[in-house]
Automatic annotation (TrEMBL):
Signal peptide (residue range): none
Family under the similarity heading: Belongs to the UPF0125 (RnfH) family.
Pfam families to which the protein is assigned, alphabetical: Ub-RnfH
Protein name: UPF0125 protein DNJ96_03605
HAMAP family from the UniProt entry: UPF0125_RnfH (MF_00460)
Lineage of the organism: Bacteria, Pseudomonadati, Pseudomonadota, Gammaproteobacteria, Pseudomonadales
Length: 88
């Protein structure tokens, strides 16, 4: 079956189409796509994954045509004036 694995890294978004066996899991599709060798910063133990915008587990089975998404970790850097107190 055919699936697409996507990742929006800092340089450019990547979308890799790959052919996988029926019953393939999200993790297997990511590995099969070759994306992990292209983007060594991906850490599947820390980053969330999904299928068409819905969070799923790495062992979730895929269906024909699914789009597997690897999400960036969200971080927020506070400015000096960006605090919880709004007394100013």
């Amino acid at each position: 079956m055919n699936v697409c694995v996507v990742y929006a890294n800092a340089r450019q978004p990547l979308a890799l189409n790959c052919r996988v066996e029926d019953g393939c899991t999200v993790e297997q599709a990511i590995e099969r796509s070759g994306l992990l060798s292209c983007c060594p910063e991906i850490d599947l133990r820390k980053q969330k994954v999904g299928v068409y915008g819905k969070f799923v587990k790495l062992d979730s089975p895929l269906k024909e045509g699914d789009r597997v998404e690897i999400y960036q970790r969200i971080t927020r850097v506070l400015d000096d004036d960006d605090d919880e107190d709004d007394d100013d």
